[in-house]
Amino acid sequence: MISCTRAKVAAPASSGWSVLAMLVCAVIVWASAAAPVVAATSALASSSDGQLAAATQRLEAETASIGNLLLEEDGRRDGILEERDVAQGLVADWLAETYKRQGADQNALVQMLLSESMAEASRRVRMVQVVADHYSGLLDTLDSAEAQLAASQLERAQRVARLGAAQSELVEVRAEQDRRAAARADLARTEAQRRDRAQARREASQAVASAAAARQQPAGMLVGALGPAVFATGAPSAGSIDAYLASKASPMTGQGAAFMASGSRWQVDPRLLVAIAGAESSFGQQLCGPNNAWGWACPNDPADFGTWADGIDTVTSGLRRYYLDEGRTSVTLIQQKYCPVGAANDPTGLNSHWTTNVTKFLLEQGGNPAMVGPGPTAGIALPDLGGLGLAVD
């Protein structure tokens, strides 16, 4: 049985038995040190954030301290081994020089016989002995120091084992801290989404209330080729549309007459076109195609319009043919087809804000989000919209 208690090591550091014994001891020590880490990991979930922070600080300090001790031990051992190599080299050089000068078989008696006097012989013997004693003492000192280092190898193995256990425990603590941080971030995102949904519901409720109130106000009339359409707070005008566009710094300012003409022709509230442009392109400031402020056929095959008036009339006629004629006469019903939530071409979910934004901009102009024009116009011949590159789903 191998005892791993600290004791003086009599065998040299290079002894195979010593190395094997220390390796076996290191494994035993590591296993005994690592066992508490597994037990501690199961308790991390019940620890407070403050306890985890304190454990992180303690383990970081401990691993740094053990690492510094190991580096210091390595430095001392390297220094002793370097001094030993120098001393051994000096002794080897001295012995080689003595052998060359006197021959390998000469001894103290031969030295005496070759001397001119007994005093000279005695001096030579004493000199040889002093030099030999000096180098022998130096080597003994270095051997003793190296033996002390060998004796400390068990302590070093214990430190290495504790360092590994502390590092493993530190990894577990940090993983628990990261898990909690991620959980808090998820909770914050969920709460933000909940607030956004609540805000959207409030805004929708306000829009419905505003629409209901608008229906109680005197109605204005917009007359066009397809008959009268009733709007919320009176008929819009080119001047009112241009004033609103100017307040939004829109490059479409001055197109109020074009909005009015297309709205009258297709029986669509022109303010709806302005509101959709606000939601899709910040009122024409961020276009997906030339003069295309409405995201028309974007992003796959965006429509290109030669002028603002072309774009206004094309989109208004498209809203009539593909939306209002299907009975989609409110902002909410139009949104379901115009930019449905969860669409493949909307990976960031911007479509979820479309109804809110269009409703807001329409109400700012005095429009009615619950009625943006009359419903189906069956039997009315509409212009052929083919060849305009419109992708209608």
What is the number of helices? 11
Biggest sheet details: 2 strands, antiparallel
SSE string, helices as H and strands as E: HHHHHEEHHHHHH
Strand order of the largest sheet: 1-2
Instruction: Write down the overall mean pLDDT.
Output: 74
Low-confidence stretches at least 5 residues in length (pLDDT < 50)?
1-35, 214-233, 378-393
Q: What is the oligomer described by this structure?
A: single chain
| Termini gap | 83 Å
- Strand percentage lies at under 5%
Level of helix content? Answer: 55-70%
What integer value in Å does the Rg equal? Answer: 47 Å
Based on secondary structure, the structural category is mainly alpha
**How many independent structural domains?**
2
Q: What's the shape?
A: rod-shaped
| Beta strands, count | 2
Provide a descriptive summary of the structure in words.
- The chain is mainly α and 393 residues long.
- It has two domains: 16-184; 219-364, Lysozyme.
- 65% of the residues lie in helices and 3% in strands.
- Strand 1 (220-224) and strand 2 form a beta hairpin.
- Helix 6 (238-247) packs across helix 7 (256-266).
- The longest helix is centred in the middle third of the chain and has 63 residues, at 153-215.
- It starts with 15 loop residues before the first helix and ends in a 29-residue tail after the last helix.
- The model is unreliable at 1-35, 214-233 and 378-393 (pLDDT under 50).
